[in-house]
Amino acid sequence: MPLTHPETELHNPQSTKPPLDPHLKALENEAIHIFREVAAEFERPVMLYSIGKDSSVLLHLARKAFYPGRVPFPLLHVNTGWKFAEMIAFRNEIVKRYDLDLIEHVNPRGAAENVTPFSHGSALYTDIMKTEALRQALDAGQYDAAFGGARRDEEASRAKERIYSFRTPDHRWDPRNQRPELWNVYNGMVRKGESVRAFPLSNWTEVDIWRYIQAEDIPIVPLYFAKKRPVVERDGMMILAEDPRLELLPGETKREEVIRFRTLGCFPLTGAIRSEATSLDDIITELETATVSERQGRAIDRDQSGSMEKKKREGYF
Amino acid sequence: MTAPATANAVQEDAAGHVVTFPATETARAARDSRPLRLITCGSVDDGKSTLIGRLLWDTKAVKEDQAATLRRDSNGKQNDLGLPDFALLLDGLQAEREQGITIDVAYRYFSTDRRSFIVADTPGHEQYTRNMATGASTADLAILLVDARVGLLEQTRRHATIATLMGIKQFVLAVNKIDLTDYDRARFDQISHEFRELALSLGVRQVTAIPLSALKGENVVYDGRASMPWYDGPTLIEVLELATTRSSQTVGFRLPVQRVSRPGESFRGYQGTVAGGSVKPGDSVVILPSGMVANVTKIVTFDLVRNAAVAGDAITLVLDRQVDVSRGDMIVAIDSQPLTGLSFDAHIVALQPEGVQPGKRYWLKSGSRRQRVQVQPASQLDLKTGKWEQAEQLPMNAIGKVHLAFDEQAVFDPYEQNRTTGAFILIDPDTNNTVAGGMITAKRSALGGIHTEDARVILSLPADLADQLMATELFVSRREDAEVRRVSAGRASEIIDTIDG
Do A205 and B116 make contact, defined as CB atoms within 8 angstroms? Predict the structure, then answer.
């Protein structure tokens, strides 16, 4: 996007699409308000970008919030090294297309100690390659505000998360001692070293995300659409078997299935679902009749009840 | 019923009742499809968790894996309908599960074919006024829950008072556990009558009372006609579907400026969310507090240059001339301006253990503007009696009337007229924590004279006009400050003459 727009070009050529329904419009307005407020109040904001559908919506809203200007903060991708290959390709394309500043961070401990989800187990691996890595990247950038795409409907401990979620200098979240949040008046006052995580999508549900992606024609990683792909069954999940680093265990066999993903994370920890949904319409229909929640496919949530809360206290997004 | 609590069981449940939705196609077209924000008030004993759980369950917002986790965590504890313990679904934080209490505001989401809902779930304990105020600040509607066997409690008055103060105008009285009274109609009528009296004393006119059983799912999402043929009113979900969302579109245009967008020399736009009224190109506006005047040339959004914007829209406004506008300023309609001044009256709710200290200089944030303020408490609301008592300082959970004194011009609307430009938070500069939420009631004159605190105004009005004025929300909210005598016209002019003489 060029830095300046001559006045005659302010009319966006994409504007032929029908107006958003009032429900999505209200959610969009709220998110844009939060983006602008954080960008104005904090010195060094950054946006956590995980390449998934929520991040795609978040990025779209950021572009809308600051139009006709550029997105005034960088995107941070904490890369575990175990993301789906299609996610990385998609990320690179998006950064180029929208003229974004991307910072990629990989925990150096991962390579040094060869930390993998297979060798260290999902809990320790997540702790080192995601939580610790995120802390490193936030410290390095001295960011005082980090946007995230978390939604309150995702998981029980998120239901009480504020829109501005205060973090101590060591990135800890104290759920018992959160700042009250009234109306849409946000308290952005922090001392040096302290920060907030800001969640513009707090009030969105999974269906809202998909309906918005459809209404706004937002690009997403093709893994969300059903296709015949190689999979292997492990720990009750169907894992994508494309990456050469995935070694089959005794008794495991690779097979082809028509699958898609409801959420995207690290490929060894993300379960696929059997699905014929090849379009956004199909996905929304599937979702409206779904009987399981989206995080059901995520191994890290299932360690034990309250496990997300523990991770969040330690600085996980 | 001993069937396991699965989606199938819910369907069987549903099949046992006749589900009818009375709305016609015309009602459907006119409906407000923006999400409805609501707050639930009541205690664990009233069955609040069960009610919210029932809403989530019957609208299919609970998925199978969540239900399975729920059943695992319930350790086999199930109610006699074979449903899991809903409280576990709602109490998200481990600390709460261990202590069995709800310690904070949690937000829940569910939807029907017609609308989606955001529920602020707040605890019912007395000491958690602050949580209720937080949840109520964004709510369009309040559900007050009472146990049909117990009736109204002191806390019912307290919850209704706080909700009213926070600007909620639509109430549902959920008379729960009606099954435990053998669906006693007289009991329900008595409780709803008592509540209507209470609501009237608070100036609330929109009240719907519903007899229901959250446990059995009667009159929540599915109707309870089989058990309560005498009740022909709406179910809870029907009331929620038809409720109105708050709108500040009828008042003057307000745009608190969040950012100035200058992507290049040729463009300068003011970004913010319209907080009241509407705007279109050509409108004359004033920038406050500076008072400079300009005209709107364009309303820019990512999608298109718009012909108009209304309250709630996040926009970028372009003006016809170079004026000094920065973050924290408010762009307003020239013919309908807010109050500006150095001194205001407000209601506040104290949110932190240290309370609100007299004379201390706090940060006040309203819209996008942050400025220094000195706060002088005047009185505190006794939630038991509904009376205002004189107070020097306000402890945590207190609701007080305060005077605000600013160093620089402040810009507000009365909260009664605008829930955005009339609302603010107080931030303690020592801790950076949010210590109070506040609502502007009026501007004070800094000059004293007849506008000082002790001054009174005697009006002599025709009875019908007085009755209309006294029915307004503003008057009702300050009823205790007024003295009213009914006299003949002749007697009134005698009294006035006495004063003048």
Answer: yes
With residue B493 as reference, give the H or E element that holds it.
helix B489-500
Helix crossing, B7-15 with B48-58: angle to 10°? 90
Picking from B72, B92, B103, the nearest residue to A176 by CB comes out as: B103
Range of the domain at B161: 7-242
Does the global pTM surpass 0.95?
no
Q: Specify if B247 maps to a domain.
A: no
Percent of chain A at pLDDT > 90 equals 63
Which chain A residue has the Cα nearest residue B369?
A185
Give the range among A70-74, B116-120, B485-489 with minimum mean pLDDT.
B485-489
Which pLDDT score is estimated for B39? 94
Which residue matches tokens 């603010």? Answer: B424
Structure tokens at B370: 């942050």
B360 and B408 assigned to the same domain: yes
Reduced to 3 states (helix: H, G, I; strand: E, B; else coil), residue A249 is: coil
On whether the CB atoms of residues A46 and A75 are closer than 8 A, the answer is: yes
Q: Which residues pair with residue B440 across a beta bridge?
A: B346
Determine whether the interchain pair A29/B312 forms a contact, defined as Cβ–Cβ distance below 8 Å.
Answer: yes
DSSP per-residue string spanning B303-327: S-EES-EETT-EEEEEESS-----T
Q: Where are the domains of chain A?
A: 21-209+308-313, 221-300
Residues B33 and B128 in one domain: yes
Query: To the nearest whole angstrom, how far is the Cα of B449 from the nearest Cα of chain A?
Result: 35
Number of domains present in the structure of chain B: 4
Answer whether B264 sits within 8 Å of A207, measured CB to CB. no
Specify the CATH number for the domain of residue B148.
3.40.50.300
CATH number for the domain whose boundaries are A21-209+308-313: 3.40.50.620
The length of chain A, given as a count of residues: 317
Q: Which amino acid is at A29?
A: N
Half-sphere exposure at residue B249, Cβ-oriented, CA atoms within 13 angstroms: 9
DSSP letters for B179-237 = GGGTS-HHHHHHHHHHHHHHHHHTT--EEEEEE-BTTTTBTTTB--TTT-TT--S--HH
